[in-house]
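Subject: Interface between my chains keeps coming out wrong

I've been trying for a while to get a sensible model of this assembly. When I model each chain on its own everything looks fine, but I need the whole thing in one frame so I can look at the contacts. Pasting all components below, labels as-is. Any help appreciated, I'm running out of ideas.
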Amino acid sequence: MMPDSQIKQATLRDVAEMARVSYQTVWRVVNEHPNVAVDTRERVLQAVRTLDYRPHRAAQVLTTGRSYILQLVIFEYAYGDPLPAILHWAREFGYTMVVTELKDATSAESVRTLLRETAQMIDGLLMVMPYPHLSYDALAGLCQGRPFVVVNTELGAKMPSVVFDQRYGMRLAVEHLVALGHRRIAEISGPLDNCDARARHDTWIRMAADMAGRCEFDPSLSVAGDFEVGSGYSAAQHLLATGRSFSAVLVGNDLMALGAMRAFDEAGLRIPEDVSIVGYDDAALSAYLSPPLTTVRQEFDTLGRESVEYLVSLIEDRLTPIQQRVLYPELIVRQSTCSRTGEHPQTGELGRR
Amino acid sequence: MMPDSQIKQATLRDVAEMARVSYQTVWRVVNEHPNVAVDTRERVLQAVRTLDYRPHRAAQVLTTGRSYILQLVIFEYAYGDPLPAILHWAREFGYTMVVTELKDATSAESVRTLLRETAQMIDGLLMVMPYPHLSYDALAGLCQGRPFVVVNTELGAKMPSVVFDQRYGMRLAVEHLVALGHRRIAEISGPLDNCDARARHDTWIRMAADMAGRCEFDPSLSVAGDFEVGSGYSAAQHLLATGRSFSAVLVGNDLMALGAMRAFDEAGLRIPEDVSIVGYDDAALSAYLSPPLTTVRQEFDTLGRESVEYLVSLIEDRLTPIQQRVLYPELIVRQSTCSRTGEHPQTGELGRR
DNA sequence: CCCGTGGATGTGAACCGTCACAATAGTACA
DNA sequence: TGTACTATTGTGACGGTTCACATCCACGGG
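Reply #2:
Try treating it as a single job with all components included. I did that and got this:
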């Protein structure tokens, strides 16, 4: 059994009674308004302490319309990455965070359902929705005019958003491989309806076209995974099964890179001598893989801070313009990439079933 | 600029006016009470739809005292693991979740601060606090009599809680290694003020004592990490630096196991031939390490479901008894462990700096 | 002595649902 | 025709905070 089931919270009026003043005076003291006599203030504060008075948030929300609660909407993939940073910065800015997961981010209906539940309670929304199926107006409608910031959407999208420049990140990765002499480069991308994955994929194709001769894009050496370890593993196996040769792989994130490394390892290929691998994200574990993974770092802490900061400024100051804040990733070179020596046994000979 | 800044939400009274009935009738329709004439009901529902009426949650909280919001308090370590499951099940049970991180879980003061902010808004708390410094009464006091469930605390703790039996899990791991013939077993534990880490560590010591002769506990081969990859790496290096021989390592979680594997790899030791490794958790990536990691699986989805289910039953039905629900982990044997052949080069010869 | 000024404090209404109770209409049955 | 009862609908107060406004008092200047 629970003990003394509900402890009755003291109210403004309770404190007023105890301090022998009106509730308004108590309110003034609590909200630090001027024009309260020092001895009255003391008496009130005393009462506040003994009764352990705290303003009732729900009542405050009801009258002021402000809850200091934000809602984070995340799509299942995007999990671990930006969440800790967002949580941390929300707290730092004085907000608490409701976290909701969205199963089907592509349908406006599921978003609507999600918002129904909490809508009147929250001051603004942060949406990690890498599936840009909803226009600004659609989102604004769903959010009932509440401020929102989209995290990780298309570069150039006309909405309040904070994004990494995926084209830039991919360029770093490709240039790195090309500089090492790699020509036949395979790709294990994320799901192509994910805008990040798409942007990187498209960038890779465009770069290959632009650098014709120095490297090439082979459609049969481009597989899409789902950002999970297992899909990296099977994608790598699939690449090997094609029998086509490649000396390096661009992988959509570090988790899939880990899976791919395992597959190559099982196939007897050495990394980086036989296959160079570039990951994406720079997860905590990437520095400790064997070999440590060359990857494109996305600074999720910055992403979290920028997103929250932007959202809060939209909430508190209506003058903030709609804009897209762009962050730039960084290439972290470790030991999973090396120059293509050409004399090593390459995939294509070994990889044949 | 944000567009038409705030969209005015329709209230019960607005709907009533439109449907030409009293707000009470609207309320009855919305809350599906009987005794409303069919045509009235239709008229009201029509008005509800055209005005897109939704009850104001804050007002509901104010009058009913129920918010259908739960608060999750997590200590930084315990991150990724139980969170997705808890989120999912909370939603499943009709609750939304406020997620708050706690920097210093050992001080009652920091908990109090955290709760102040949201206290009157939430129906109950879920605390992932593997630092059992607070008694049931202390916690109940902090929670102001609101129901709470502790996730991952000490086995046998007298509070509403859901835990894995860490002793059982560790026993599985140790028995596995002993059955494979390992005698000198090293340990990379989690931080020993963490009750999970502590329970496993203590179990290991007790088992070694009980099985005297068949395996042994060597204090200098027991290092505490912090559950992060990097600490597994340096702990493994430390083990090697002792110059003492060991043929297997019990690691506090899979992430540290990954770090340790890297360290052994760098030192030229093969896994499992030279060192067998047992992890803990069965993280998503563990099956894809090279070699795939033998580990003790904790079913976090079950943990999440049980925790939320328990909390909800405490909230909705005051008769639920205070109890501890115990879940049992499971040994997953993969390829990072093998029988000790004795003829292989063991650590101690190779490991010397 | 009166008025203006400003500090100190109090009153009433509003926010939006909820709930206990009141009121009205309508039917059934004696 | 009246009573009992039900189905349907309405009224009033309340929850705890906020805010605009009202009141009271004292003090200084004229």
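Reply #3:
Confirming on my end. The domain at 166-298 of chain B is CATH 3.40.50.2300 (Rossmann fold).
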